[in-house]
Amino acid sequence: MTSPDGARATVIHADLDAFYASVEQRDSPRLRGRPVAVGGGVLLAVSYEAKRLGVQAPMGIRQARGLCPDLVVVRPRFDAYTAASRAVFEIFRDTTPNVRGVSIDEAFLDVAGLRRIDGAPSDIAARVRRRVREEVGLAITAGVARTPFLAKVASGVAKPDGLLVVEPWEEAAFLGPLPLGRLWGVGPVTARRLARFGLYTAGDVADLDLGLLVGILGPGGGHHLYRAVHGLTQTRVHAETRRSIGAQHALGSRPRPWREVEGVLLSLVDRVCERLRSAGLLAGGVVVRLRYGDFTRASRSHRLGHPTGSTARVAETARRLLDRDVATIARRGLTLVGVALTDLSDAGAYQPMLGEPTTTLDATVDGLRTRHGRGSLTRASLLSRPPP
Fold first, then answer.
1. Mind telling me which residues the site (Substrate discrimination) is annotated on (predicted)?
2. Where do the domains of the chain lie?
3. Eight-class DSSP state of 110
4. Rounded-to-integer distance, Cα 363 and Cα 154, Å
5. Cα–Cα distance between 75 and 24 in angstroms, integer?
6. Considering the entire predicted model, what is its pTM?
């Protein structure tokens, strides 16, 4: 199996574990550690405690209880699942603008180009998993690979609550021994058909000519499986139309001086603006998100009159939004601050606005950080002591 020169694993497939059942266990302590299923006459989702006993979705309740007499069946609460999904996808979009949702509980994230800003893709995936657990209270599995197909297969192998990275030079060794049913797009009927020809693993299929596969599965299925086992599936994540770029920072519970809070805010602005420009985008809106000492949240937003890629303009707007909450923060404390850029558009579609702060400095700063690492240049307000 070959891959383009210099290709790396930069696509993350993030998939919530036993989503509906996990939300029920999160919200009801009596269900934690017990075999749980969500549904009515037919089960929609089951917890891993139930899966280990052979219970699957979709399955009838009578059959499920025959396998697991202690199964707890709860009615679905779709409002709760929708709210949890939105919170998780907000974390995805805070991580990268290139997000494509697959369903309510899974998505692809393309983090190519973020290595200098946010670290290696494996570190980014680990951070996403940690944030989902801490902020939403759910376990999520991530697979990281060169293509969306391989990333999804990797997350399936890593489940539950795992992280698996497959670099291009590991693809053949990773795919070869996998049962064909593990491959995305190979269902039970296709797997049984291939088994009649003595084909059980991806490695078995990789040894076949394309013509033989087409003869067994037809043009569509044959070409798909051939591309899959040879690493020839598409490499790009086609992002959703509505996107945002964001970052946030937990401050802890101790009181912090206003200058320090403002310094953290500006550091986040630097980060998201660098991401914005590296993606060739402009922002039409700025959002500041706050979590107070009593764990309540607030969001302050401002729509810009003209899309921008200027750090100075975003910083000015974010400061004004934060200033609205000076009294509230003094009274209730602040445990988290975040910044998001919204209403994103292609930078090539707009002419610079008259009076727009120059982006020459931004480009210089971006270049220095790309060449020497993000820590090579920082704001004076973030230094532990005043600059000379």
1. 20
2. 11-17+80-170, 19-79, 176-229, 245-382
3. E
4. 37
5. 10
6. 0.62
Q: What pLDDT is stored for residue 384 in this prediction?
A: 47
Is the separation of the CB atoms in 231 and 3 below 8 Å?
Answer: yes
Q: What does pLDDT average to over the chain?
A: 83
CATH class, range 176-229: mainly alpha
Position 266 scores a pLDDT of: 92
CB 91 within 8 A of CB 348: no
pLDDT at 4: 46
> Is residue 106 flagged as an active site residue?
yes
pLDDT digit string (tens) for 283-296? 889 999 998 888 78
pLDDT < 70 positions in the chain? 1-6, 238-243, 348-388
Q: Determine whether the annotation assigns residue 15 to a binding site.
A: yes
> What CATH number matches the domain at 19-79, 3.30.300.20, 3.40.1170.60, 3.40.50.880, 3.30.360.10?
3.40.1170.60
How far is Cα 98 from Cα 92, in angstroms, rounded to an integer? 9
Burial of 196 (0-12, 13-18, 19+ CB in 10 A): exposed
126 burial (CB, 10 Å; 0-12 / 13-18 / 19+) is middle
Out of 24, 49, 106, 171, which one is annotated catalytic? Answer: 106
Angle at 64 between CA 60 and CA 66, to 5 degrees: 120
CA atoms of 233 and 7, how far apart (whole Å): 14
Q: Is the Cβ–Cβ distance between 253 and 335 less than 8 Å?
A: yes
pLDDT at 268: 93
Report d(CA 70, CA 52) in Å as an integer. Answer: 13
Does 209 carry a binding-site annotation? no
pLDDT digits (tens, 9 = 90+) for 68-113: 999 999 999 988 998 899 899 989 988 888 888 888 899 999 988 7
